[in-house]
Amino acid sequence: MNKRQKKKRNILIDHNESLEAFVKSILIEKEEFDVDIYGYIVRFTEEEPVWSIFLCSKIKQKTYYYGYYPLKITNMIDFTDTLTLFAKNKIELIVNTDSYFYEPTKSMQENQSNLLLEEIKVDTDNTLIKDKKMKKYRLGYDYLFLPSKSFSYKEELIGAMSINVLFKVIDDDGNEKLFESEELKDQVTNLITGKQCYLYELFRCSVDKEKIVRFDPNIPLIKDFKYSLQFEINSYTKDLDKGTLEPVFISEAEFMEIMRNNFDLFDNVDNNSAQTTSYFIQEINP
Q1: 105-117: pLDDT as tens digits
Q2: In 162-236, which ranges are continuous DSSP H helix?
């Protein structure tokens, strides 16, 4: 493998980096290795209609695919600003007007000879390393309920109560959509507007006199979420106040008893929309 091909794969596209940083990485590649890099700006897929840039280059009449970068485009001004940024840096962008989606992408992704970034990485010594097997998992989050002050319960000082909620993402055909990554980690989900959010942001959790815990959809976000969302309370904790909060797992019955008997302490503005402070993962083995 020649030096250019190895170095070319150093454009590791980070979907969370700024568009300016993304453009800078392209310019470095173009300057150092005199390779013509261009992009198609199109919707990603039918299932995920987010405006994205698919980066490509041609070397000896062969098309190489670097990966895609999702754009945060919500209106024509955003669209124009994106085109202007690339034009100023003399990077060609092809806007797909014939087809809604970028048709060559599928064949590129299936063609192993193109050495996709998603399948091969380059170590610091330019040695090719095969990616680890992708892990599939569900995500869950805690919702933290804070009392107006710590209180005693059966000789314990309680500083907070929590529930851990596990989410399941369901598509229109009733199939579950699992998160995937090499390492188990928190991830955002894409909305149809091109914006992103965490699953816990799609629902607000608050205290309720009758139900104790109530979930309400976050309408501005949920209406732009392209899937259905199911959730269940996975576990309950009481957080003991020992200078710092130390969570202890308890039963649903004990959680409800503590909350109900001390509801006045939890009926405060902090719990109108409970805080989320951590996430957990349920890995799904094949």
Answers
A1: 444 444 333 333 3
A2: 219-222
